[in-house]
Amino acid sequence: MLSFECDYNKGAHKKILERLLETNEEPAKGYGFDPYCASAAEKILKACELASGQVQFLTGGTQTNQIVIDAMLAGYEAVVAADTGHVNFHEAGAIEYTGHKVLTIPHVNGKLDAGDLEQYLKDYYADDNHEHMARPGMVYISHPSEYGTLYSKAELEALSSVCKTYELPLFMDGARLGYGLMSKDTDVTLPDIAKLCDVFYIGGTKVGALCGEAVVFTHGNMPKHFLTTVKQHGALNAKGRLLGVQFDALFTDDLYFEISKHAIEMAEKLKKAFKEKGYQFLIDSPTNQIFVILDNEKKKELEKEARFGFWEKYDETHTVVRIATSWGTTEEELNALIELI
To answer: What confidence score (pLDDT) does residue 89 get?
Structure first.
């Protein structure tokens, strides 16, 4: 059975597994106070060109979104996101579970538009009853978006400017950040993100690691006692070294970027094949996620030999499926799917 339903269906890159084995029997301090986490953080900050940044390693994306948002907001504050944002759509109310509301704005190709954000905030403060409403306390975006689309540098600069005007931190979900950075259609670099966002994270779970996300606070703005907040959420890993070793490997010799580029190359080949076969796309995604419109009968036929991710119902006779390549997609798997379609 071919597996293209997501980009986290394989374990970890072999270089990460090798480093975990090499360091397995070395004793190290717990809770992230080990030399591997320190080395990984140093390499990440160097790649971000950050002099005063701070790094905290967490295990998964939903956990990271929930903890960062909860730690940075006051009890009466909410997070603003596109209506398709992961924190609003596919996290089972994890943000609301902490007592914070998600305030949504209609998306534009999966993204939050700076003009829409500014108008939303103007309307909020123009409402004489705004003191009775959940106060916008931060802005959440994801890059790539849930539709695999990317913010341009100009779009990020515009969002950052609005956030600064209203004194709102800009938080970027980077669960698939590697695939966004290595897209042929991007003009955004890791240092750009570090400059324009107040906090973001570098996803490992979907980009070659067994698990793990590296949260980067960009200008010494990590919330007070952040580690304690992490522990309150039950997310402080006693064997923090396991995350440090993985990210240390990912940020050695550009491994993170190389394996991300591989996923993009696989996706480009797959998109070309689908186009040549006459398939239609829901949206033109420049990253590793491909959204194909399938006739329902054709979908049933293909699913006998391949797994795809359900995205949405297109009409009575068609369904949109998500097909994802990853760091671990092989040429053999790709060719088999192309032959199948």
So the answer is: 87
| 51-90 residue pLDDT tens | 999 999 999 999 999 999 999 999 999 999 999 999 998 9
**Beta strands 306-307; 2-3: pairing state:** parallel
Residue with the two structure tokens 């990460």: 16
Q: Which long-range contacts (CB under 8 A, 24 or more apart) does 290-296 make?
A: 290/148, 290/322, 290/323, 290/324, 290/325, 291/147, 291/148, 291/320, 291/321, 291/322, 291/323, 292/320, 292/321, 292/323, 293/318, 293/319, 293/320, 294/318, 294/319, 294/320, 294/321
Model confidence over 166-202: pLDDT tens digits? Answer: 999 999 999 999 999 999 999 999 999 999 999 999 9
| Crossing angle of the two packed helices 241-250 and 35-48, in degrees rounded to 10 | 40
What does the buried/exposed string (b/e) look like for 134-172 if buried means 16 or more CB atoms within 10 Å of the residue's CB? bebbbbbbbbbbbbbbbbeeebbebbbebbeebebbbbb
Sheet of 213-217: strand order equals 54-58, 213-217, 199-203, 170-173, 135-142, 77-82, 102-105
> Can you say whether the dihedral through the CA atoms of 322, 326, 328, 331 is positive or negative?
positive
> What residue has token string 């070309």?
272
Tokens of 189: 């670099």
